Records
---
Amino acid sequence: MSIASSGLTCPVPAGEADRVLLGHGSGGKLSAALLRERFLPRFGNEVLSVLGDAAVVPAPGEEIAVSTDSFVVSPLEFPGGNIGHLAVHGTVNDLAMMGADPLYLTAGFILEEGLPFDLLDRVIEAMSESASEAGVIVVTGDTKVVERGKADGMFINTTGIGRLDPRFRPGPTRARDGDAVLVSGPIGRHGVAIMAAREDLRFEVEVESDTACLAPLVQGLRATCGPAIRCLRDPTRGGVASALNEIAASSGVGIRLEEGELPIPGPVRGACEMLGLDPLYVANEGIMVAIVAPDAVEAALEAMRKHTSGESATRIGTVTAERPGLVLLRTGLGASRVVDMLPGDQLPRIC
Amino acid sequence: MSIASSGLTCPVPAGEADRVLLGHGSGGKLSAALLRERFLPRFGNEVLSVLGDAAVVPAPGEEIAVSTDSFVVSPLEFPGGNIGHLAVHGTVNDLAMMGADPLYLTAGFILEEGLPFDLLDRVIEAMSESASEAGVIVVTGDTKVVERGKADGMFINTTGIGRLDPRFRPGPTRARDGDAVLVSGPIGRHGVAIMAAREDLRFEVEVESDTACLAPLVQGLRATCGPAIRCLRDPTRGGVASALNEIAASSGVGIRLEEGELPIPGPVRGACEMLGLDPLYVANEGIMVAIVAPDAVEAALEAMRKHTSGESATRIGTVTAERPGLVLLRTGLGASRVVDMLPGDQLPRIC
């Protein structure tokens, strides 16, 4: 006789009704309840509610952009957001950096047994809000549960699908001598917020993560500047330094940054000095680097500044034909130093 | 001065060159090396090699099928396969069950610090082989690393995108009174193989996982029987019992199974008796349940039997108008018992 038909099983042990159990990942009744009570009310839409083996959605145009990211940030909640915000913003921003409009998202959850439901609910709520803001719907998902001690609270994978505009294809190989290097907002906030939360550090002014959806900024740039936008990159893991190194290498150009122009907030600078970090390598989750043709600089800055997350957009450097592949930082004293790619991890598990 | 520009860092500690380090998830040089040395040689294709923030692929037709799954199987390797086989088969099979041809796959890896590279290589190799067999390409991916003790070796998420045929849409609501219930192969092998590996049990005859790609079987059914194929379902977590319960509920029909017709291999039956499991609830990773119109039964069985993984395809029951929503098993003695949906987990972390 099966466990199910014995009628003797109490699937949820007393006192455990407020947290995730192994059975929630079984594909049985508890999994169905988790879906019905927690995921569907917040993510519900016509596509997801079918609950088939796969979602069926209209294909947007002739080509699609596809991006995937797993999120393992620690801690799960931090000043300015939680893993749910990152899981949506990280993937929709990757699509936006290709010039694509994010449309569909999948969500795969790996939950640790014992995860409190109220924390899970806050994460789902954050995902739901961020998805609405970004104009994407969660079309399909999956939940697995592992035993206590076999994961760290929760991990989330999101995969995004976006609509491409054949006339707007920014890409890392397109930077040219004389282009301007712009950044859409202050540098270093996300990494410092995570580090402070992790180490329980208190600064005079709390630094909040910049986690935000960049798609509206990109849509603005597309409408205003079109092909004058050469490359877009969101400087997450590895920070602004790594993003610019990748562009310099892919395009075979040099990049010269002006130290005095870098928008590094005072509290970020202070925290980085204390922690021995270089803000150029600290992760961001709500800013982008834009390489823009010289005659489009003012229009691009103006377009970004129309959005809250772009209101302090500014120019930080110039693309050069000299020293191809290298990123150089010119300091206030007129000296230059190479801003190399990071060999290993400065801050692990930042997203 | 940044860590990177100090020139003093040895990113890979001596004696650790054969395993995953936290730095491999940093987005820096070690991440790039991991990608270049391990992932690209096995997954490489024109789309993936661009390494943009997102992949750009042609949209197949007017509608697409999208499926996502995270894999947390323990142990990572087991008789008949490893987590890499499951990560490809699981997602392409979900697409196939919608009647779709799998085309593109994304791969998100969460690696535990210390994971041996040779194990990672075997998993990537398995994914590469399985993807080739299934006719899919890995178009984009992501790797994160968490500290020792914060994951269990590795977790993999795959998301698949498939081409839909507007004239072939099997679905769980389409079962009708009089339809036949077919199964494409022996029941219960995957779950028993995992359980035996986990508990280090030895049986007289080793049971191997059935992990396999079902897309060719579905393509055969589509070509031979078309719309006479009402529903397809791969009975993974929760087994054949859960898959049939979902169909019975979605279609508002009853399902009657004949115990004597269930293709349960002797070693699976023996292992289940020893472990106190019901084979109908044990996970499978390479078989499907097909609900087929009465006049297409022979053609469907013949089509499935042309493929290695379908060679023992057989009929196990009938859809009925009686007892809608219920799955009943008629035993050899003529008695019937209800085969309910499982409340919690019979075997956790089976995929």
---
Amino acid sequence: MEIFLATGNEDKRREIQDLFPGLTFLLPRDRGLPWDVKETGTSFFENALLKAAALSAGLGPGRPVLADDSGLCVDLLAGGPGVESARFGSVPGAKPLSAEDRNALLLQTLEQRERESPETGRGARFVCALVLFLSPYRIYSVQEAVEGEILKAPRGSGGFGYDPLFFLPSLGKTMAELSREEKNRRSHRGLAGAKMNLLLRSLG
Amino acid sequence: MEIFLATGNEDKRREIQDLFPGLTFLLPRDRGLPWDVKETGTSFFENALLKAAALSAGLGPGRPVLADDSGLCVDLLAGGPGVESARFGSVPGAKPLSAEDRNALLLQTLEQRERESPETGRGARFVCALVLFLSPYRIYSVQEAVEGEILKAPRGSGGFGYDPLFFLPSLGKTMAELSREEKNRRSHRGLAGAKMNLLLRSLG
């Protein structure tokens, strides 16, 4: 089964491909389509849905589209950076911060918030919304989350983004210390992918 | 497994119970909670999500909530009445029309529209969105649809609402001419329920 992925990002194609062996993922550019959808939603689901709907409209009927939107929700930031995770600390229109700079900014911000509200704790969750858009009337979605804590300094060299700061108490490791296989099984995206796989396998 | 159903309607509990044998469905009133959530969303999914989120907030964590929102989308009405299906032709605040009066109004409206735009045809679809709300971060949803045509006069005495007007060409019957078992298998709600069942059975 061929599925179009609503992203311009090759890295995301590789990650998603890992979660759905046996399926072939195509990017908009594989059909010569431009990709510059603005992620203006206020929730992961909304953003995933608007990306999926935009690509589906570009491709026309009969082409299943998968979209992913994910991010980090931190208690000390009242659920932020959330849908702004990739753009945290960045000036609108300018180049986004590097992952290292973004992580340093997050640690600094949390340190200050923790002084103001020490009872909140450093709880956080990674959230992933996957939307499978079969037609404007046939849409499946799965949003999963993993609970963890934001460390005071990065640990581990795997993964990307906020992974080195996100500690999973149940595994005693940060997301950046998981093997690729372990991450595919235990991460927010891995959990959402497993549920979406159930739905995909049920399609005729 | 006990699941709370985000509705005040006993008939909906019975229908949903049919689709999910083995699960126990509770209504808000079974826990003494009032039920008067306004369905202000612009899509079936949005309405189902806001009902599920409202009940989950009332119940507190650890209580799975299922919500349903469904309706009829008619080509000659540019996809309407859609989320307004239950209130079609009704005056806001007043008692909604009876199903018979609503169906008569739909036929009359389509007759007029058909004269204005004869090339559109009488195509329509029944759409059902189901949302399973496990927590604010763990949400599954399925939206399914069945394609059909709006007849020029009602046929059949089963079902309810728009069922006697909705003809399924693949079955050669209206939705109101299906047996209960056939409807559970072939209707928009039946199709969405089957997918949601896959997800429910995968929960630990």
---
Amino acid sequence: MFTYLKSIIKRDPAARHFLQILLFYPGVHAVFYYRIAHFLYNIKLKLLAEGIMFWVRVFTHIEIHPAAKIGKRLFIDHGSGVVIGETSVIGDDCTIYQGATLGGVGKGHGKRHPTLGNNIMVGAGAKILGPISIGSNVKIGANTVVLHNVYDNKTIVGVKGREVA
Amino acid sequence: MFTYLKSIIKRDPAARHFLQILLFYPGVHAVFYYRIAHFLYNIKLKLLAEGIMFWVRVFTHIEIHPAAKIGKRLFIDHGSGVVIGETSVIGDDCTIYQGATLGGVGKGHGKRHPTLGNNIMVGAGAKILGPISIGSNVKIGANTVVLHNVYDNKTIVGVKGREVA
Amino acid sequence: MFTYLKSIIKRDPAARHFLQILLFYPGVHAVFYYRIAHFLYNIKLKLLAEGIMFWVRVFTHIEIHPAAKIGKRLFIDHGSGVVIGETSVIGDDCTIYQGATLGGVGKGHGKRHPTLGNNIMVGAGAKILGPISIGSNVKIGANTVVLHNVYDNKTIVGVKGREVA
């Protein structure tokens, strides 16, 4: 826990001290309750696990399916609108910003959400869709749509705004 | 209602059974209350209707103007950040994902939001803006901005992310 | 306050009267509490200020850092998912739509969020990132990513959706 909080202070310049993070970081609350719900889901208390994450979503605006597999020290910063789908897998030390989705493409059963390696940054509003693999140390820019596999150490961005008038 | 729940199980692979959907699907809650608020709005109880949808937004993170016209079996999946504006019209069997907006372009009065046909899929984060028409069986990709009419059976997408480093 | 409410009726065709705006406009609530929290933050009651904005975020889905500097008559319309970072500066008469972010690029300390002039429109889902300057009377389209300075009176947009099938 101590390592986690220290890693957040390192990743978020607006973080001031442990108490502030524990009290006021919805991404920390969401991941904490996800850990409990994930355990309950695995011992087949699925409806209870889903109920916990339903209420976590109401208060944090972050939706994490209790069946998702999430590594150590995931930091969801700001977090409003984040959706992490059922068959998502996330490695260690990832950072996900507000409005990002790890989602499906609306078809298929079984594995239909992305697998992320370690130390990945998913920018605000980015949508990573389908049963694809994102390598370690990848950065994904704000509002970027990712539909294919990405190798390690890459940076993926969409299109910047341009002047039209 | 039975048909509606069955259609959701067909559309969402993460849906397990009716009880789970009724309890934990904010998009189902939001559309349910919208039906009540829409009735109240039409009999001129506007402030009451708006008050209901205000609280629905607080708990579901889905904003539907009570004056919007919505067809049968609309499924708002995940739903955080969805905004459906006052003069929007939505046909039957549409699916709208989190972060999508049916909105205006910030000018004009009267009809200023889109009209959607039947069986449309609006991807996560998509913004459909202005008094435009979207034909039936259209699919709109994640984060896509749509400002013009779209014919039936089309698929509209924005730009996928590209590698820059 | 009277001028503020009048300016909202001018900017939002769905606004009907003062009572409706005061009761049901989360963007009005969020800015109101921000004014209090900003005062408390400046007299070093930082944890209290952050606590107020934490709860404002829970109920309005709008996140404004209490240290941000915001001019007169900011109107946050709809507002779900809006994030305004710690070192942001916003001029007078700006309008910000749902899902927009004034954020950082995930590195650096000190000034790391944008500075906006007067009378700016930030479209739904737009992401303005980094310690950049946006001139007065600028319009930024929906889902646009802005990473560079913008001169006065410009319109900046991303890419519209195109037909692929």
---
Amino acid sequence: MSLFYKVNIFLVQLPAPKRGEIVRQIGDALREKLQHLGRLVSLEMGKILAEGIGEVQEVIDMCDYAVGLSRQLNGSIVPSERPDHMMFEVWNPLGVVGVITAFNFPCAVLGWNACIALVCGNCVVWKGAPTTPLVTIAVTKLIAEVLEKNNLPSAIFTSFCGGAEIGEAIAKDTRIPLVSFTGSSKVGSKVQKFVNERFGKCLLELSGNNALIVMDDANIGLAVRSILFAAVGTAGQRCTTCRRLYLHESIYQSVLDQLVGLYKQVKIGDPLEKGTLVGPVHTQASRENFEKGISTIKSQGGKILTGGSVIESDGNFVQPTIVEISSDASVVKEELFGPVLYVMKIKTLEEAIELNNSVPQGLSSSVFTSKPETIFKWIGPHGSDCGIVNVNIPTNGAEIGGAFGGEKATGGGREAGSDSWKQYMRRSTCTINYGSELPLAQGINFG
Amino acid sequence: MSLFYKVNIFLVQLPAPKRGEIVRQIGDALREKLQHLGRLVSLEMGKILAEGIGEVQEVIDMCDYAVGLSRQLNGSIVPSERPDHMMFEVWNPLGVVGVITAFNFPCAVLGWNACIALVCGNCVVWKGAPTTPLVTIAVTKLIAEVLEKNNLPSAIFTSFCGGAEIGEAIAKDTRIPLVSFTGSSKVGSKVQKFVNERFGKCLLELSGNNALIVMDDANIGLAVRSILFAAVGTAGQRCTTCRRLYLHESIYQSVLDQLVGLYKQVKIGDPLEKGTLVGPVHTQASRENFEKGISTIKSQGGKILTGGSVIESDGNFVQPTIVEISSDASVVKEELFGPVLYVMKIKTLEEAIELNNSVPQGLSSSVFTSKPETIFKWIGPHGSDCGIVNVNIPTNGAEIGGAFGGEKATGGGREAGSDSWKQYMRRSTCTINYGSELPLAQGINFG
Amino acid sequence: MSLFYKVNIFLVQLPAPKRGEIVRQIGDALREKLQHLGRLVSLEMGKILAEGIGEVQEVIDMCDYAVGLSRQLNGSIVPSERPDHMMFEVWNPLGVVGVITAFNFPCAVLGWNACIALVCGNCVVWKGAPTTPLVTIAVTKLIAEVLEKNNLPSAIFTSFCGGAEIGEAIAKDTRIPLVSFTGSSKVGSKVQKFVNERFGKCLLELSGNNALIVMDDANIGLAVRSILFAAVGTAGQRCTTCRRLYLHESIYQSVLDQLVGLYKQVKIGDPLEKGTLVGPVHTQASRENFEKGISTIKSQGGKILTGGSVIESDGNFVQPTIVEISSDASVVKEELFGPVLYVMKIKTLEEAIELNNSVPQGLSSSVFTSKPETIFKWIGPHGSDCGIVNVNIPTNGAEIGGAFGGEKATGGGREAGSDSWKQYMRRSTCTINYGSELPLAQGINFG
Amino acid sequence: MSLFYKVNIFLVQLPAPKRGEIVRQIGDALREKLQHLGRLVSLEMGKILAEGIGEVQEVIDMCDYAVGLSRQLNGSIVPSERPDHMMFEVWNPLGVVGVITAFNFPCAVLGWNACIALVCGNCVVWKGAPTTPLVTIAVTKLIAEVLEKNNLPSAIFTSFCGGAEIGEAIAKDTRIPLVSFTGSSKVGSKVQKFVNERFGKCLLELSGNNALIVMDDANIGLAVRSILFAAVGTAGQRCTTCRRLYLHESIYQSVLDQLVGLYKQVKIGDPLEKGTLVGPVHTQASRENFEKGISTIKSQGGKILTGGSVIESDGNFVQPTIVEISSDASVVKEELFGPVLYVMKIKTLEEAIELNNSVPQGLSSSVFTSKPETIFKWIGPHGSDCGIVNVNIPTNGAEIGGAFGGEKATGGGREAGSDSWKQYMRRSTCTINYGSELPLAQGINFG
């Protein structure tokens, strides 16, 4: 009997609604420290304060949501075809969930996973990003305090500040039935291989390469503001950052002109300072990656309309960049993790959808339109193939009530709302014969 | 645009309830040929006629079920936290589903997959077992006729009679977003690796190693009949065949004596002949595998209580076998695909559950008891870790209304009822802003 | 123990999926007689043949749907806040369902009710309209044959051809826990009073007074064709017939002109004859009612734009009629059961919605628009208050997958799809303590 | 436009998750005053302090639950049978909900209703019991403060301290689409009549007459403790109080002896004092009603085994009473609202179930057994006909995650968990045609 199992018993012995009460208290503990934690996120990750606070608020929202969920982790009673038989679908905890998160959302992604994992009855083993240890430690301490106040072992929620070797250890550990990983498609693919080899389960949130389409019948003002937020927010380091912009030819130049104008006014600087819209990219490596990306872009024929350079200063600041480029350029199919937006021209919705779907990734996507027909085609079988399919809002800004995640190289996992909780549990189809006969399914007679 | 895509358009253009009507007609076509097809299954696979007919009946039941489902592939409307926004969860077809099935259920497993895949709007590419081509061809022809009668291209449902090279081609084909594979954990693991490398999805139904527990308070008569069916039915070649029997020490000898007595009376022979309970194993290779297994069992200290030999005759007949063995023997952790039952003694429910859960596989399991406490523990968080968790019925005999499949090395897929259909579709979280403001989630202000 | 109860035992002893199989056979029996029954409906009720056949097809569709439902009458397993407790929500049959239907859909409404009632495990006591006895008898015989073929007492499905005295007897019979009534609000209200006095349940489908709104941004061609079908189809004798037309002032005259033109071309005559669009009204009383209505309309200032008279001939033929009238006229708030359409002018969506909602009835409603904002406002909290809220389709034409029914004086019942089946069952919240302690909810200690 | 409507706009303009945040704050406000409010409930109603606090805790639990629910008031997207059509099931607020509660749960029942009504977007008009004005005022003030803190009109939640005339005014008010009433079947029936006459909706929680069955195979210790709590708790003034006890003949005398022994030790007195198990009945009228009841019981042949008298003292104290009586006595079919338990002998489960179901009321019921067969029969189609069907726990003690309410003369309403929220909303089936064709359902061609 593993140590994990022994710790998990404490949690499983609590009925789900009691686990919900623990998560409610975690939410209250975070609520009390909202401003402080938000600043810490901003300071350590580099995103602007409003986003730092917004990220913590999202964890709090998840806690509130999970409290309600703790009374709704419902199984089913299914009509049996056999007399004196009951058929149930029962959901039980997995035991332990490994959670590996990335630097760009140092606590929100943990929150999505941990809130649900805990109400489902699972211990959590968390590896935060190696570059955001303070957030990892702060969140862990808050949770530990709540657990202890409730006479529960704080080992129910364990965390690590460390690098790839710890991630690999989690991926390979047979005691961890589920590994939830957020990061690049490349690393995610390796994690998946390790986990599958030991017949574990993965929940993957991998690369995005998110397109935004503006049709000729769109509300242009709404579209322009959305593009700005989607492309330069968090210095282009959201998994849902808009990286590809498809503009209908009839409004192409006009939208582009407005965008370039706005880009030039964006205030770049200290993320904690009021008025700043764009902070630094996360690390020096990110900055170098940006520079390398710009050079590749140029070599593939991309034309820099604005931005395109790093900013010489103390921090890792880079310029929000708009690139006019052919949709055939191979760089357009990749995720460059910074504030670089590729702009391309389209003639029809069909063409736009085909281009939207033409990349390996399948996270988020957005269309701006005022036609019902376009809306319903876009969300239908021949529309966007992404996990997030928006209309008249940016590619980002998911609400916790919906399922968050993407298709194809984005990994297929779903977090937060809807039935995402099912991934954190195991399902049993149970048939109970309470009579004294032995009828077989499909009316088979035997012996 | 791939050929698959072009064919798929015919299906997707049909609204789901119209696809349901196609599947209803397939059900009627099978119903008309129930006896013939049942005989063919029996002849080609080797299972007894009642089981052959039962297998076809299961496909018919699936058709009926899928018709209803075609009006219930429901998405959700989720309350948005933003004014003038609608949030939807929409389900769309994947396009094409690859289905690779095994010899032991040459048509039922196809039925589980194809009925749901079709109403969900997917084309099906089926590879049947290389040793059951007649069933593959017969079923394919029936379906093709229905498609053609409805002016649909029969390419909507394509099948192959072939071996591993075709399976590998399907697994590697980027045009097939989902591959549903039924077979051994070893091969399944390879399929999964191929599919994941191209960021496709798998639905795996792999090895089982199913235990049946008889507690001291059980209805012994019910238990004995169930064990017989579970262990020797289909000559031990069901994925849900009972392979491990845990008997409470107080009833150990008595149950064993009754079982050995029954085993000796089991009629082995022509599966099409009335009264036969056990037909041949499927191929000469199966027969050799049985012999090899018995020899390994002996080398690990297993004591043959009855059976243990192949039967010298024209067909591939082997004796249903009971083995008394230590639960530590490594052979007990593996799936020997034939009518071999390992018997072990237990003292408590806790011990029995720990042994039940101690193997890599997690498909089916059963307890016989008359205590509510035992029932609810068995199906609860510290109970059986299998996908199928039965009480007072054999390890087999799943009904289509429930989800069929197992955990751990069994692969985690779920077929037939419950929300299994979701695996055959892709999910989008859609947020539609129909107002003219741009509120951001989590109350973020930007710019 | 009542006779009903004794008959019901036969049905309840069949597991739900077996009851589904009975309903499947009923569907097949109807399918075989589709043309004949369709003609009979047309002959006896007076609707045109296409509609007669469509009505029978709807019953067949319901049968297919109910078959799938028979494996999905799912209860829930709800997480309990107490250790060693299971909480279930279980659905059980009511026993007997009384179904009282109206002349205008002599078999579809029975089908909605009976298919679901039967798979839920209820006997059915049906009173058809006194003026459509042939359809009642034909349908009853078909169902009886299926029941008998399955060795079930045909008393499971009983029917009456009779009038109000039988309806009253059903409403007052304490052995009938649920009475499903379709008819006028006036009679429905009486039925409800009788049933409630004995603490039975009602499912009411009462009067409609359905409005169709055409906005200035609508597809006018689509709107005009829809209005024609909605207002004159079935000679205006559908519960979902469009009776009120609100036209935006900017397209008012143009739509009206087109409509009046079309009305003049409508072929009135023998409903069984090809090309006929409008048959007779159902009875001489209906014809007189039409005449009386027209006279009231005139007295309240209504201006007849086309039609307005009965047709002198053998049958009960009346002219499809368009009336220009003030929305303040009291006659607009009532349901005149014939092909009379009130036309009124509106300036804004808000005004149109307020008028739509200003009548006592709340069955169906429709808006024609090409603006997403209008669509989502129309279906939202400040939109139409009806049970059926359509966009760019007529007020009628419900699909069986959705729930059919209306609010306010329409009675609040829901039939056909969605979770309508719950009305045909009783719900129990079951908590099972399988441990040996006695923890109380809300953490109360007692004694 | 009514005043209600104008106030309601404030609530409806808040998206549901924001309404959830209001309810979360209400929960926190109550949490802060838990002890005080619990004492007030105890003081004013007369229940013991543990129950008073438990009752307030239940409201807090409901708040937490409703917060989660505010993101899960999900509609559905249903597959349409027509191309280019979307079918939705949408849920919208009703506007205003009238809530009429009884003295015995002066705040819990309000909590069940108000939490759900508010997150669903409805204003609440509450009439508390005329004899518990302090609790009504205290709760109202707490809620008003929260509303005001959030800049919402406190008129969103309005309350009255008053009698039948206010209840009647609510029942007859056409601006209140739903009236939730808790009280006697007699008054409830009148309320229903008033509400139905104006085509409003009712949610009724009326009389209970709850039976507890002890089978010969039961855990007797558990049963006896449960009976004591169920029958004398809250001085027999819960709607779920156990009023009828059916003991298997083989354990009849033994259980009865233990019960009588326990009844004699029950401490009656000041409900706020530690150790008290039974406080006074609510009013002098309750006390007189008890006396009258005892006299009727005696006149019908009931034999008082213990208790049977009022206690001469300052408060309205009465003795917990056990009565041996024939199940034919008419008094057994009625709800005597005090601590009087009728005991009867049964021989079989079938007999016990028939007796359980033989009264007009259908609220709660309980069986004590250790046989799975008995459990599943009890909760099945031929088992208890009540809304609450327990096993091995008392008739009371419902958890908020399940639906609370009963059948037959208990009124059929359901409050708290499961899908009870649907009663607080109106449902629309919406079909949207976003194409340019006009296909009709059931394949009808028209014109």
